C-alpha cells in the first residue's frame, strides 16, 4: 500500500475530517487576522473583547432559539472543566449517568470521586450501543451525552419519563451542539466546547442553563459547600452577564467561534446545520451498506451519529495502513478513537464539511479498497 498513489482528481478540496479539533473555514481565519491590535493583546475587560463575547452569547441564543429565562454562560477550560463545575454547582446529592464510552464515563468518574456526593447511579452499555436515562427518585440530576464522540452513538434529548420537575437534565453536547437539533426545554444544562461544530479551539466551555439550573447553582453556592471560584457556575454566570469570563480567555477561540456561529445563522441556523449533517453522515452510512468490507460500528440506525461516523473495517484489511496512506495525500484525522482499539475509521461530518468533500472521500476510499482487492487476488 505504501506505493499506491491516489490521483489528485479524486481528492477532496479540504481533507480535514477530524472529530475535534475540526476543520476551520478560511473565512474564519480571515476574520481572525482582521481583528488587529484593537482586540488582540488587549484587556478582556474592555469593550472590543466584550463585543466578541457578546457575539458568541447572542449568536448561541439565536442559533438554539432559547426560551425566556435560559442563559448562555461561558467559562475557562473545556468540557472537562464543566464536568467539575457541574459536580460542585449542579449536583445536590446524587446523579445518574448514562455511560456509552470514554467521554460519558469521565463525568461519571468525577461525580463518583466527589467526597460531598453520594455514589452516582450508573447505566452502562457496551461501546457502540445506546441506552436511556431511567426515572429514579433518589437522584437530583440525570446526565448523558447527546453524542458520544468516541463511539459515534447519538442519543435523543428528552426528560426521563416520570422525572420530577426538581430533577435536572445535564447534557454533554460537546460534539453535538451546532450540528444536531434539540429542544432546549428538555434540558437544564446543555454544555459543550467550541472545537467541534463551532470550528474553533479549546480552553473554553459554553453552557445553556435553564432557570432551574441557575436556581440550583445559586442555592448550592449559598450553602456551606466549598466551591473553587474557577468552578463556580454562579461566578461564571455573573461574569457572562457582563460579557466576560472570570480569567483571561483565548481571544482567538472566541473570535473563530463568533464567526462560525454567524455563518451558521446566515445559512439557515440549526435547522440547516442539522439537515446538512444528516445528509453528509447519511452518505457515509449508505456507502458502508454497499461495501462488504465496511460495517457501521453502531448497528442500530436510530443511534448512529450525524456528526461522527464510526465504520469498522474487515480484519483482513489494515485500517491503520489506509489512514496512513490517506494522511500522506492530505486526508487527515479519520483514525478511530485510540482507546477503543478497533480496526476502524472515524469520520466527522460537522457543519463545515460539505457534501462534495464527503463524496470525494468516499471516492478515495473506494479507490483504495478496490486496489487492495485487486492486489489480494491470486
UniProtKB/TrEMBL annotation:
<dbReference type="Pfam" id="PF00266">
    <property type="entry name" value="Aminotran_5"/>
</dbReference>
<dbReference type="InterPro" id="IPR006272">
    <property type="entry name" value="Pser_aminoTfrase_mycobac"/>
</dbReference>
<comment type="similarity">
    <text>Belongs to the class-V pyridoxal-phosphate-dependent aminotransferase family. SerC subfamily.</text>
</comment>
<comment type="function">
    <text>Catalyzes the reversible conversion of 3-phosphohydroxypyruvate to phosphoserine and of 3-hydroxy-2-oxo-4-phosphonooxybutanoate to phosphohydroxythreonine.</text>
</comment>
<protein>
    <recommendedName>
        <fullName>phosphoserine transaminase</fullName>
        <ecNumber>2.6.1.52</ecNumber>
    </recommendedName>
</protein>
<dbReference type="GO" id="GO:0004648">
    <property type="term" value="F:O-phospho-L-serine:2-oxoglutarate aminotransferase activity"/>
</dbReference>
<keyword id="KW-0718">Serine biosynthesis</keyword>
<feature type="domain" description="Aminotransferase class V">
    <location>
        <begin position="41"/>
        <end position="331"/>
    </location>
</feature>
<dbReference type="InterPro" id="IPR015424">
    <property type="entry name" value="PyrdxlP-dep_Trfase"/>
</dbReference>
<keyword id="KW-0028">Amino-acid biosynthesis</keyword>
<dbReference type="InterPro" id="IPR022278">
    <property type="entry name" value="Pser_aminoTfrase"/>
</dbReference>
<dbReference type="InterPro" id="IPR015421">
    <property type="entry name" value="PyrdxlP-dep_Trfase_major"/>
</dbReference>
<keyword id="KW-0808">Transferase</keyword>
<dbReference type="InterPro" id="IPR015422">
    <property type="entry name" value="PyrdxlP-dep_Trfase_small"/>
</dbReference>
<comment type="pathway">
    <text>Amino-acid biosynthesis; L-serine biosynthesis; L-serine from 3-phospho-D-glycerate: step 2/3.</text>
</comment>
<keyword id="KW-0663">Pyridoxal phosphate</keyword>
<keyword id="KW-0032">Aminotransferase</keyword>
<keyword id="KW-0664">Pyridoxine biosynthesis</keyword>
<dbReference type="InterPro" id="IPR000192">
    <property type="entry name" value="Aminotrans_V_dom"/>
</dbReference>
<keyword id="KW-0963">Cytoplasm</keyword>
